[in-house]
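Aim 2, interim progress: modelling of the zinc ion-bound target.
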Amino acid sequence: MKCIRCGGEAVYRRVYSGEVYCARHFVSSIEDKVRSTIRRYRMLDIDDRIAVGVSGGKDSLTLLRILAKIEKSFPKAKLYAITIDEGIEGYRSGSIELASREASRLGVEHIVVSFEELYGSTLDSMVEEAGRRGLKLTPCSICGVLRRKALNYTASRIGVDKLATAHNLDDEAQTFIVNILHGDLFRLVRTKPVTDYRKGFVQRIKPLREIPEKEIALYAYLEGIEFQSEPCPYRGVSLRSDVRMFLNIMEDKHPGIKFTVVRMWDSIRSVIEENLPEVELRRCRLCGDPSISDICSGCSILVSLGLRSYQPLT
Ligand code: SF4
Ligand SMILES: [Zn+2]
Ligand SMILES: [Zn+2]
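Predicted structure of the complex, ligand included:
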Protein backbone atom coordinates (compact mmCIF):
# COMPACT_ATOMS: atom_id res chain seq x y z
CA MET A 1 0.00 0.00 0.00
CA LYS A 2 1.38 3.40 -1.01
CA CYS A 3 0.47 6.80 0.45
CA ILE A 4 -1.76 8.80 -1.91
CA ARG A 5 0.15 12.00 -1.16
CA CYS A 6 3.81 10.99 -1.32
CA GLY A 7 3.90 7.38 -2.55
CA GLY A 8 5.69 6.34 0.67
CA GLU A 9 4.95 3.26 2.75
CA ALA A 10 1.34 3.50 3.99
CA VAL A 11 0.24 2.84 7.58
CA TYR A 12 -3.49 3.35 7.24
CA ARG A 13 -6.32 2.87 4.78
CA ARG A 14 -9.62 4.70 5.31
CA VAL A 15 -12.04 1.96 4.41
CA TYR A 16 -14.98 4.39 4.08
CA SER A 17 -13.17 6.68 1.59
CA GLY A 18 -10.43 4.53 0.09
CA GLU A 19 -7.68 7.05 1.07
CA VAL A 20 -4.32 5.51 2.00
CA TYR A 21 -1.71 7.40 4.02
CA CYS A 22 1.83 7.17 5.34
CA ALA A 23 2.29 8.20 9.01
CA ARG A 24 3.17 11.84 8.22
CA HIS A 25 0.27 12.35 5.83
CA PHE A 26 -2.18 10.51 8.07
CA VAL A 27 -1.32 12.97 10.87
CA SER A 28 -1.69 15.98 8.58
CA SER A 29 -4.98 14.61 7.17
CA ILE A 30 -6.44 14.53 10.71
CA GLU A 31 -5.26 18.06 11.46
CA ASP A 32 -6.69 19.28 8.12
CA LYS A 33 -10.02 17.62 8.94
CA VAL A 34 -10.16 19.38 12.30
CA ARG A 35 -9.36 22.72 10.66
CA SER A 36 -12.08 22.20 8.08
CA THR A 37 -14.63 21.18 10.76
CA ILE A 38 -13.80 24.36 12.69
CA ARG A 39 -14.29 26.40 9.50
CA ARG A 40 -17.45 24.62 8.35
CA TYR A 41 -19.31 25.19 11.61
CA ARG A 42 -17.64 28.56 12.36
CA MET A 43 -16.52 27.19 15.70
CA LEU A 44 -13.87 29.78 16.50
CA ASP A 45 -13.07 33.45 16.10
CA ILE A 46 -9.47 34.60 15.75
CA ASP A 47 -9.28 36.15 19.22
CA ASP A 48 -11.25 33.53 21.18
CA ARG A 49 -10.23 32.43 24.63
CA ILE A 50 -10.79 28.68 24.46
CA ALA A 51 -11.03 26.16 27.26
CA VAL A 52 -10.50 22.51 26.36
CA GLY A 53 -12.07 19.85 28.55
CA VAL A 54 -9.18 17.44 29.10
CA SER A 55 -9.81 14.12 30.82
CA GLY A 56 -6.40 12.63 30.07
CA GLY A 57 -7.78 10.13 27.56
CA LYS A 58 -6.68 9.90 23.91
CA ASP A 59 -9.48 12.07 22.52
CA SER A 60 -9.06 15.08 24.78
CA LEU A 61 -5.25 15.02 24.68
CA THR A 62 -5.38 14.78 20.88
CA LEU A 63 -7.78 17.73 20.78
CA LEU A 64 -5.50 19.77 23.04
CA ARG A 65 -2.46 18.94 20.89
CA ILE A 66 -4.22 19.87 17.62
CA LEU A 67 -5.77 23.09 19.00
CA ALA A 68 -2.37 24.11 20.40
CA LYS A 69 -0.92 23.69 16.86
CA ILE A 70 -3.79 25.66 15.30
CA GLU A 71 -3.55 28.37 17.98
CA LYS A 72 0.02 29.14 16.84
CA SER A 73 -1.44 30.74 13.69
CA PHE A 74 -3.76 32.91 15.82
CA PRO A 75 -1.63 34.92 18.26
CA LYS A 76 -4.69 36.68 19.73
CA ALA A 77 -6.33 33.38 20.74
CA LYS A 78 -5.61 31.79 24.10
CA LEU A 79 -5.96 28.20 25.23
CA TYR A 80 -6.70 26.72 28.68
CA ALA A 81 -7.07 23.10 29.73
CA ILE A 82 -9.71 22.14 32.30
CA THR A 83 -9.80 18.74 33.98
CA ILE A 84 -12.68 17.66 36.16
CA ASP A 85 -11.72 15.21 38.87
CA GLU A 86 -14.92 13.25 39.46
CA GLY A 87 -13.36 11.24 42.29
CA ILE A 88 -13.09 7.73 40.83
CA GLU A 89 -10.70 5.74 42.98
CA GLY A 90 -7.70 4.25 41.18
CA TYR A 91 -8.69 5.76 37.82
CA ARG A 92 -8.75 9.53 37.69
CA SER A 93 -5.48 10.49 39.41
CA GLY A 94 -3.32 8.90 36.66
CA SER A 95 -5.17 10.72 33.91
CA ILE A 96 -4.89 14.08 35.70
CA GLU A 97 -1.14 13.59 35.84
CA LEU A 98 -1.00 12.87 32.09
CA ALA A 99 -3.20 15.92 31.33
CA SER A 100 -0.96 18.16 33.47
CA ARG A 101 2.20 16.91 31.78
CA GLU A 102 0.82 17.46 28.28
CA ALA A 103 -0.55 20.92 29.14
CA SER A 104 2.78 22.03 30.57
CA ARG A 105 4.63 20.59 27.53
CA LEU A 106 2.38 22.72 25.30
CA GLY A 107 2.63 25.77 27.57
CA VAL A 108 -1.13 25.73 28.28
CA GLU A 109 -2.50 26.73 31.69
CA HIS A 110 -4.14 23.69 33.36
CA ILE A 111 -7.01 24.03 35.82
CA VAL A 112 -8.21 21.04 37.86
CA VAL A 113 -11.57 21.16 39.68
CA SER A 114 -13.05 18.28 41.68
CA PHE A 115 -16.60 17.08 42.32
CA GLU A 116 -15.65 17.06 46.00
CA GLU A 117 -14.89 20.80 46.08
CA LEU A 118 -17.89 21.73 43.91
CA TYR A 119 -20.53 19.32 45.20
CA GLY A 120 -19.12 18.09 48.52
CA SER A 121 -18.80 14.45 47.45
CA THR A 122 -16.84 12.22 45.08
CA LEU A 123 -18.54 10.26 42.29
CA ASP A 124 -17.69 7.01 44.12
CA SER A 125 -19.58 8.19 47.23
CA MET A 126 -22.48 9.44 45.10
CA VAL A 127 -22.79 6.03 43.41
CA GLU A 128 -22.82 4.32 46.82
CA GLU A 129 -25.41 6.76 48.14
CA ALA A 130 -27.61 6.28 45.05
CA GLY A 131 -27.50 2.51 45.73
CA ARG A 132 -28.38 3.00 49.42
CA ARG A 133 -31.32 5.21 48.47
CA GLY A 134 -32.51 2.82 45.74
CA LEU A 135 -32.28 5.55 43.08
CA LYS A 136 -32.41 4.68 39.39
CA LEU A 137 -29.27 6.67 38.64
CA THR A 138 -26.39 4.99 36.79
CA PRO A 139 -22.82 6.15 37.55
CA CYS A 140 -22.58 7.60 34.02
CA SER A 141 -25.85 9.52 34.31
CA ILE A 142 -24.61 11.18 37.53
CA CYS A 143 -21.12 11.73 36.14
CA GLY A 144 -22.21 13.06 32.72
CA VAL A 145 -24.59 15.70 34.07
CA LEU A 146 -22.37 16.86 36.93
CA ARG A 147 -19.21 16.94 34.80
CA ARG A 148 -20.98 19.08 32.19
CA LYS A 149 -22.09 21.42 34.96
CA ALA A 150 -18.59 21.54 36.47
CA LEU A 151 -16.99 22.26 33.08
CA ASN A 152 -19.45 25.08 32.40
CA TYR A 153 -18.92 26.54 35.86
CA THR A 154 -15.12 26.47 35.52
CA ALA A 155 -15.12 27.81 31.96
CA SER A 156 -17.42 30.70 33.03
CA ARG A 157 -15.23 31.41 36.03
CA ILE A 158 -12.09 31.83 33.91
CA GLY A 159 -14.10 33.87 31.40
CA VAL A 160 -13.50 31.96 28.16
CA ASP A 161 -15.53 32.43 24.96
CA LYS A 162 -15.68 28.77 23.92
CA LEU A 163 -15.48 25.41 25.58
CA ALA A 164 -14.07 22.70 23.30
CA THR A 165 -14.93 19.11 24.09
CA ALA A 166 -13.38 16.01 22.53
CA HIS A 167 -16.52 14.28 21.25
CA ASN A 168 -15.54 12.24 18.21
CA LEU A 169 -17.59 10.80 15.35
CA ASP A 170 -18.40 7.64 17.34
CA ASP A 171 -19.62 9.71 20.33
CA GLU A 172 -21.80 11.85 18.07
CA ALA A 173 -23.39 8.86 16.32
CA GLN A 174 -24.00 7.20 19.70
CA THR A 175 -25.55 10.36 21.15
CA PHE A 176 -28.01 10.60 18.26
CA ILE A 177 -29.19 6.99 18.72
CA VAL A 178 -29.24 7.25 22.54
CA ASN A 179 -31.41 10.39 22.38
CA ILE A 180 -33.82 8.61 20.04
CA LEU A 181 -33.95 5.55 22.33
CA HIS A 182 -34.58 7.81 25.34
CA GLY A 183 -37.25 9.70 23.38
CA ASP A 184 -35.46 12.91 24.29
CA LEU A 185 -36.46 15.32 21.53
CA PHE A 186 -35.24 18.40 23.40
CA ARG A 187 -31.71 17.02 23.71
CA LEU A 188 -31.80 15.62 20.16
CA VAL A 189 -32.32 19.13 18.84
CA ARG A 190 -30.15 21.04 21.30
CA THR A 191 -27.05 18.86 20.90
CA LYS A 192 -25.15 20.63 18.11
CA PRO A 193 -21.60 21.03 16.75
CA VAL A 194 -21.70 24.56 18.22
CA THR A 195 -24.29 25.10 20.92
CA ASP A 196 -26.59 28.12 20.75
CA TYR A 197 -25.53 31.16 22.67
CA ARG A 198 -27.43 31.21 25.98
CA LYS A 199 -26.67 33.49 28.85
CA GLY A 200 -25.15 31.43 31.65
CA PHE A 201 -23.76 28.72 29.34
CA VAL A 202 -20.38 28.95 27.66
CA GLN A 203 -20.75 27.99 23.98
CA ARG A 204 -19.51 24.46 23.38
CA ILE A 205 -17.73 23.29 20.25
CA LYS A 206 -16.76 19.81 19.07
CA PRO A 207 -13.81 20.06 16.66
CA LEU A 208 -13.30 16.23 16.55
CA ARG A 209 -16.89 15.37 15.63
CA GLU A 210 -15.88 14.19 12.15
CA ILE A 211 -12.97 11.99 13.22
CA PRO A 212 -13.65 8.31 13.98
CA GLU A 213 -12.42 7.13 17.36
CA LYS A 214 -9.94 4.63 15.91
CA GLU A 215 -8.31 7.38 13.81
CA ILE A 216 -7.85 9.48 16.95
CA ALA A 217 -6.19 6.48 18.62
CA LEU A 218 -3.81 6.13 15.66
CA TYR A 219 -3.08 9.89 15.64
CA ALA A 220 -2.26 9.79 19.36
CA TYR A 221 0.00 6.79 18.85
CA LEU A 222 1.84 8.29 15.87
CA GLU A 223 2.25 11.63 17.65
CA GLY A 224 3.59 9.93 20.80
CA ILE A 225 0.81 11.30 23.01
CA GLU A 226 0.80 9.54 26.35
CA PHE A 227 -2.79 8.95 27.39
CA GLN A 228 -4.76 6.91 29.86
CA SER A 229 -5.84 3.71 28.16
CA GLU A 230 -7.39 1.99 31.16
CA PRO A 231 -11.19 2.17 30.94
CA CYS A 232 -13.25 3.81 33.67
CA PRO A 233 -14.46 1.13 36.13
CA TYR A 234 -18.07 2.31 35.60
CA ARG A 235 -17.97 2.01 31.84
CA GLY A 236 -20.20 -0.73 30.48
CA VAL A 237 -23.26 -0.16 32.63
CA SER A 238 -25.16 2.15 30.31
CA LEU A 239 -27.42 2.14 27.28
CA ARG A 240 -24.63 4.01 25.46
CA SER A 241 -22.31 0.97 25.76
CA ASP A 242 -24.88 -1.20 23.99
CA VAL A 243 -25.29 1.45 21.28
CA ARG A 244 -21.49 1.69 20.91
CA MET A 245 -21.28 -2.06 20.35
CA PHE A 246 -24.16 -2.00 17.87
CA LEU A 247 -22.63 0.85 15.83
CA ASN A 248 -19.21 -0.84 15.75
CA ILE A 249 -20.75 -4.02 14.35
CA MET A 250 -22.65 -1.97 11.75
CA GLU A 251 -19.53 0.02 10.80
CA ASP A 252 -17.56 -3.20 10.22
CA LYS A 253 -20.26 -4.49 7.90
CA HIS A 254 -21.11 -1.15 6.27
CA PRO A 255 -18.09 1.20 6.33
CA GLY A 256 -19.10 4.85 6.65
CA ILE A 257 -22.35 4.21 8.52
CA LYS A 258 -21.32 6.37 11.51
CA PHE A 259 -20.84 9.31 9.12
CA THR A 260 -24.26 8.62 7.63
CA VAL A 261 -25.87 8.68 11.08
CA VAL A 262 -24.22 11.98 12.00
CA ARG A 263 -25.03 13.62 8.62
CA MET A 264 -28.63 12.43 8.97
CA TRP A 265 -28.82 14.01 12.41
CA ASP A 266 -27.38 17.28 11.05
CA SER A 267 -29.96 17.44 8.29
CA ILE A 268 -33.05 16.62 10.34
CA ARG A 269 -32.07 18.77 13.33
CA SER A 270 -32.92 22.10 11.76
CA VAL A 271 -36.20 20.78 10.32
CA ILE A 272 -37.37 19.55 13.74
CA GLU A 273 -36.10 22.72 15.40
CA GLU A 274 -38.20 24.95 13.14
CA ASN A 275 -41.31 23.05 14.12
CA LEU A 276 -40.67 22.91 17.84
CA PRO A 277 -42.09 25.61 20.09
CA GLU A 278 -39.35 27.77 21.62
CA VAL A 279 -38.60 26.45 25.12
CA GLU A 280 -38.24 29.24 27.58
CA LEU A 281 -35.30 28.81 29.90
CA ARG A 282 -35.64 29.92 33.50
CA ARG A 283 -33.01 30.14 36.21
CA CYS A 284 -32.44 27.12 38.45
CA ARG A 285 -33.66 28.09 41.92
CA LEU A 286 -30.66 26.47 43.57
CA CYS A 287 -27.65 27.39 41.42
CA GLY A 288 -28.94 30.04 38.98
CA ASP A 289 -27.94 28.08 35.84
CA PRO A 290 -30.35 28.24 32.89
CA SER A 291 -32.87 25.40 33.17
CA ILE A 292 -36.13 24.23 31.60
CA SER A 293 -37.54 23.34 35.02
CA ASP A 294 -37.60 24.79 38.50
CA ILE A 295 -34.22 23.23 39.28
CA CYS A 296 -31.59 22.13 36.77
CA SER A 297 -30.76 18.46 36.13
CA GLY A 298 -27.46 18.75 38.07
CA CYS A 299 -29.13 20.19 41.17
CA SER A 300 -31.92 17.64 40.88
CA ILE A 301 -29.32 14.82 41.11
CA LEU A 302 -27.63 16.55 44.06
CA VAL A 303 -31.00 16.92 45.83
CA SER A 304 -31.87 13.25 45.28
CA LEU A 305 -28.48 12.28 46.80
CA GLY A 306 -29.02 14.53 49.82
CA LEU A 307 -26.23 16.92 48.81
CA ARG A 308 -28.55 19.94 48.38
CA SER A 309 -31.83 20.77 50.03
CA TYR A 310 -34.81 22.01 48.11
CA GLN A 311 -38.34 23.02 48.97
CA PRO A 312 -40.61 22.86 45.90
CA LEU A 313 -42.87 25.90 45.39
CA THR A 314 -46.46 25.00 46.24
S1 SF4 B 1 -17.55 5.97 31.96
FE1 SF4 B 1 -19.26 6.97 32.99
S2 SF4 B 1 -18.58 7.24 35.12
FE2 SF4 B 1 -16.76 6.82 33.90
S3 SF4 B 1 -15.92 8.84 33.37
FE3 SF4 B 1 -17.29 8.19 31.66
S4 SF4 B 1 -19.31 9.06 32.16
FE4 SF4 B 1 -18.04 9.12 34.03
ZN1 LIG C 1 2.71 10.28 2.56
ZN1 LIG D 1 -29.07 24.13 39.50
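The chain has a mean pLDDT of 93. Residues 3, 5-6, 8, 21-22, 24-25 surround zinc ion (ligand 2) (CB under 6 Å).
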